[in-house]
Amino acid sequence: MQNSDVIHPEDLKRIVVKYSGDVLPLFSQQEIRVKLKVVLEKRDKENIKEVQRAHIDGIQRQKEINQTKVNENICPKCDEKLVHRTGKRGEFLGCSSFPKCRFVA
Q1: How far apart are CA 20 and CA 12, in angstroms?
Q2: For 32-78, how does the pLDDT look when each residue is reduced to its tens digit (9 = 90+)?
Q3: Residue 93: partners with Cβ closer than 8 Å, 6 or more residues away
Q4: Residue of 90, 6, 80, 88 lying closest to 72 (CA atoms)
Q5: Model's pTM, two decimal places?
Q6: What is the DSSP letter of 8?
Q7: What are residue 90's DSSP bridge partners?
Q8: Residue 4 pLDDT > 50, yes or no?
Protein backbone atom coordinates (compact mmCIF):
# COMPACT_ATOMS: atom_id res chain seq x y z
CA MET A 1 0.00 0.00 0.00
CA GLN A 2 1.00 3.59 -0.43
CA ASN A 3 2.03 5.74 2.56
CA SER A 4 -1.31 7.28 3.45
CA ASP A 5 -4.56 6.53 5.21
CA VAL A 6 -6.34 6.30 1.87
CA ILE A 7 -7.04 2.86 0.45
CA HIS A 8 -6.42 2.96 -3.29
CA PRO A 9 -8.53 0.71 -5.55
CA GLU A 10 -5.52 -1.27 -6.80
CA ASP A 11 -4.42 -2.03 -3.24
CA LEU A 12 -7.93 -3.01 -2.18
CA LYS A 13 -8.27 -5.31 -5.17
CA ARG A 14 -4.98 -7.01 -4.36
CA ILE A 15 -6.05 -7.55 -0.73
CA VAL A 16 -9.50 -8.86 -1.69
CA VAL A 17 -7.99 -11.35 -4.13
CA LYS A 18 -5.33 -12.46 -1.65
CA TYR A 19 -7.65 -13.06 1.32
CA SER A 20 -10.97 -13.70 -0.40
CA GLY A 21 -11.00 -17.48 0.00
CA ASP A 22 -10.25 -17.32 3.71
CA VAL A 23 -12.49 -14.50 4.90
CA LEU A 24 -15.22 -13.48 2.46
CA PRO A 25 -18.16 -15.56 1.25
CA LEU A 26 -18.40 -16.06 -2.53
CA PHE A 27 -21.26 -13.57 -2.97
CA SER A 28 -19.32 -10.77 -1.25
CA GLN A 29 -16.21 -11.52 -3.31
CA GLN A 30 -18.08 -11.16 -6.59
CA GLU A 31 -19.87 -8.03 -5.44
CA ILE A 32 -16.61 -6.39 -4.35
CA ARG A 33 -14.85 -7.35 -7.59
CA VAL A 34 -17.68 -5.87 -9.70
CA LYS A 35 -17.65 -2.61 -7.70
CA LEU A 36 -13.86 -2.40 -7.93
CA LYS A 37 -13.98 -2.97 -11.68
CA VAL A 38 -16.47 -0.12 -12.07
CA VAL A 39 -14.34 2.22 -9.94
CA LEU A 40 -11.15 1.35 -11.84
CA GLU A 41 -12.81 1.77 -15.25
CA LYS A 42 -14.24 5.14 -14.27
CA ARG A 43 -10.84 6.32 -13.02
CA ASP A 44 -9.15 5.10 -16.22
CA LYS A 45 -11.67 6.97 -18.39
CA GLU A 46 -11.10 10.17 -16.42
CA ASN A 47 -7.34 9.72 -16.69
CA ILE A 48 -7.56 9.20 -20.46
CA LYS A 49 -9.56 12.41 -20.82
CA GLU A 50 -6.94 14.32 -18.80
CA VAL A 51 -4.14 12.93 -20.96
CA GLN A 52 -6.03 13.78 -24.15
CA ARG A 53 -6.75 17.32 -22.92
CA ALA A 54 -3.08 17.85 -22.00
CA HIS A 55 -2.02 16.55 -25.43
CA ILE A 56 -4.43 18.86 -27.25
CA ASP A 57 -3.34 21.83 -25.11
CA GLY A 58 0.30 21.09 -25.93
CA ILE A 59 -0.43 20.98 -29.66
CA GLN A 60 -2.37 24.24 -29.50
CA ARG A 61 0.45 25.97 -27.59
CA GLN A 62 2.98 24.73 -30.17
CA LYS A 63 0.78 26.00 -33.01
CA GLU A 64 0.62 29.43 -31.36
CA ILE A 65 4.40 29.49 -30.90
CA ASN A 66 4.93 28.48 -34.53
CA GLN A 67 2.49 31.12 -35.77
CA THR A 68 4.26 33.79 -33.70
CA LYS A 69 7.60 32.76 -35.21
CA VAL A 70 6.18 32.86 -38.75
CA ASN A 71 4.74 36.34 -38.08
CA GLU A 72 8.26 37.40 -37.04
CA ASN A 73 9.73 35.80 -40.22
CA ILE A 74 11.53 33.06 -38.28
CA CYS A 75 11.38 29.42 -39.37
CA PRO A 76 9.71 27.34 -36.63
CA LYS A 77 11.71 24.25 -37.64
CA CYS A 78 15.27 25.56 -37.68
CA ASP A 79 15.03 29.19 -36.41
CA GLU A 80 16.54 30.61 -39.61
CA LYS A 81 14.95 33.60 -41.40
CA LEU A 82 11.96 33.18 -43.67
CA VAL A 83 12.24 34.81 -47.09
CA HIS A 84 9.66 35.65 -49.76
CA ARG A 85 9.92 33.27 -52.69
CA THR A 86 8.02 32.92 -55.95
CA GLY A 87 6.91 29.56 -57.24
CA LYS A 88 4.56 28.16 -59.87
CA ARG A 89 1.55 29.00 -57.76
CA GLY A 90 2.62 32.45 -56.60
CA GLU A 91 4.50 33.95 -53.66
CA PHE A 92 5.13 32.17 -50.38
CA LEU A 93 7.39 32.32 -47.35
CA GLY A 94 10.16 29.73 -47.35
CA CYS A 95 13.09 28.98 -45.10
CA SER A 96 16.34 30.68 -46.06
CA SER A 97 18.26 27.47 -45.38
CA PHE A 98 16.55 25.60 -48.23
CA PRO A 99 17.21 22.75 -49.24
CA LYS A 100 18.43 21.78 -45.76
CA CYS A 101 15.11 22.91 -44.28
CA ARG A 102 11.99 22.71 -46.43
CA PHE A 103 9.56 24.73 -44.29
CA VAL A 104 7.05 26.85 -46.22
CA ALA A 105 4.24 29.06 -45.00
Answers
A1: 11
A2: 777 778 777 777 777 788 878 888 998 999 999 989 988 898 988 88
A3: 70, 73, 82, 83, 84, 85, 104, 105
A4: 80
A5: 0.49
A6: P
A7: 87
A8: yes
